[in-house]
């Protein structure tokens, strides 16, 4: 247990009077710090975003052309 009880210390009135009498200037944020992610975190966030969405990453028509060309190549060889 503590030997002595701590008591509240009153402020000097001089400080409070000068504090309220001066005009206050708001501190503006000039350059907020950019958030830095750990390596790989941003990639995982992007993967999750793409998995949630239903949009195609590659356009449908060009992709179907590629698949058709590749299928024809393998069909002729085999």
Q: What is the residue-averaged pLDDT?
A: 81
Task: Sum up the overall morphology in one term.
Answer: elongated
The oligomerization state is single chain
Which ranges are low-confidence, i.e. pLDDT below 50, for 5 or more consecutive residues? Answer: none
Number of helices: 3
| Element order: H for helix, E for strand | HHH
Which band does the percent of strand residues land in? under 5%
Number of strands: 0
Which structural class is indicated by helix and strand composition? Answer: mainly alpha
Fraction of residues in H or I helices: 40-55%
Q: Main beta sheet: strand number and arrangement?
A: none
- Termini, distance in Å? 90 Å
> What value does the Rg take, in angstroms?
34 Å
What's the structural blueprint in terms of helices and strands?
Blueprint lengths: L12 H9 L19 H12 L7 H18 L1
Short note summarizing the structure:
It comes from Periophthalmus magnuspinnatus. With 78 residues, the protein is mainly α.
What does the model show?
It is a single chain. Helix content is 50%, strand content 0%. The protein is an all-alpha fold and 78 residues long. The longest helix has 18 residues, at 60-77. It is elongated. The N and C termini lie far apart (90 Å). One of its GO terms (molecular function) is DNA binding. This is Core Histone H2A/H2B/H3 domain-containing protein. Pfam families: Histone (PF00125).
């Amino acid at each position: 247990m503590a030997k002595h009880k701590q008591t509240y210390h009153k402020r000097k009135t001089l400080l409070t009077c000068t504090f309220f009498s001066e005009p206050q200037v708001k501190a503006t944020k000039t350059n907020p710090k950019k958030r830095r992610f750990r390596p790989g975190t941003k990639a995982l966030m992007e993967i999750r975003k793409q998995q949630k969405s239903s949009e195609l990453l590659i356009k449908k028509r060009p992709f179907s052309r590629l698949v058709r060309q590749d299928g024809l190549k393998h069909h002729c060889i085999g």
